[in-house]
């Protein structure tokens, strides 16, 4: 996927969300809520939970098709005027978001008489360029499917297999008052973070115990656990939690990260242009990994392995792994559900788990936080900490990561036995103390090689995470996160200019949060 294709797809998604909201209001005089983003579709419900007309989705789809000769406008509106506009429409959550924006004039998008915030997102203004969409009614709402990349036909229109799990997590978030950004920020301001963290941990433990119960009910039958998910989805952390839960039942569990079986960089196959596809399953020694897993399950020892990212070289270590006859093996990696790998195993009795951020978060009562942004923000933090990669480098590479998911992960989601999440409800609040100065520094770098798309992405991400109330690192109740984030923050603060940016952000946050 070329970068332009990726950004075009994002513009299509943003534009379709806005048009669906505008047309729903035009047809019903009510407001639409984007409930959750899935892969190449998003799910919508009425913002007040009212029932849809049975044909509303079809009407919106027909109207979108009629807009090929129309345009939408981007304009700036004075802050006070915009607050009053949203209050007059009883869009109170959106008015609260506007109040927290520092600018005196705020960028908005307009179609007919319908206004919304752009959130620094990019849109297709000439609707003749908009890709096709398909709207399908489902369980009191509707899915909007869009094509990717530019010019491609729509993917197979099916209900996302993780939909029920997203609903489950949504109900949990409502119960714990963290289903919206306003409610979440209030928890931070009121000092109730410890209680929320406790509920998050209970949720994680409950979900993992369900998996362990399933494994033990089939003891000696399903001993291999394949855990897949996108880059920075939380596969490694989830695997460690699952391993710990299994060991508490007095059973052995070992983990093999598929990354440790990467080919050496100079051995990797290249395409016709001489480029390496770093997301491809074909840069993994799948046959070697499959043979060793079979040996391990049969009671033989295998060498541990490590891959050095900086040098681009992997190899066996002197230490080895052996598995008890009733022990479990977790194989975690991007490609853990890919049949190309699974077919290398003699056993077909494998428990398949897909990990992704699945807790919906409403930003303003109408828009929701995109889980892909959480993937990207986690990756920016991780790669800065472990590999000293700049945010610019990660954002530049991100379209390739998304292409890798579309090609190597997305087709196999339906095969998953469990959908899990490795996500703390307040995670973005905690990350902001690191990400804001890091991204601000990226904007201050005088780098003429950066494209407009990358600069715009940095601005968009900054705008997004600044909506979250800031948590000081020492106040993070999750001990693992606190230790990890403290280490990263130390590195960030030792970058030139970042200390000043950090304290400026912290001071402005205190003022804003007490307005």
UniProtKB/TrEMBL annotation:
<dbReference type="GO" id="GO:0016301">
    <property type="term" value="F:kinase activity"/>
</dbReference>
<keyword id="KW-0472">Membrane</keyword>
<dbReference type="GO" id="GO:0005524">
    <property type="term" value="F:ATP binding"/>
</dbReference>
<dbReference type="InterPro" id="IPR006083">
    <property type="entry name" value="PRK/URK"/>
</dbReference>
<keyword id="KW-0812">Transmembrane</keyword>
<keyword id="KW-1133">Transmembrane helix</keyword>
<feature type="transmembrane region" description="Helical">
    <location>
        <begin position="488"/>
        <end position="511"/>
    </location>
</feature>
<dbReference type="InterPro" id="IPR027417">
    <property type="entry name" value="P-loop_NTPase"/>
</dbReference>
<protein>
    <submittedName>
        <fullName>Phosphoribulokinase</fullName>
    </submittedName>
</protein>
<dbReference type="Pfam" id="PF00485">
    <property type="entry name" value="PRK"/>
</dbReference>
<dbReference type="InterPro" id="IPR018163">
    <property type="entry name" value="Thr/Ala-tRNA-synth_IIc_edit"/>
</dbReference>
<feature type="domain" description="Phosphoribulokinase/uridine kinase">
    <location>
        <begin position="224"/>
        <end position="418"/>
    </location>
</feature>
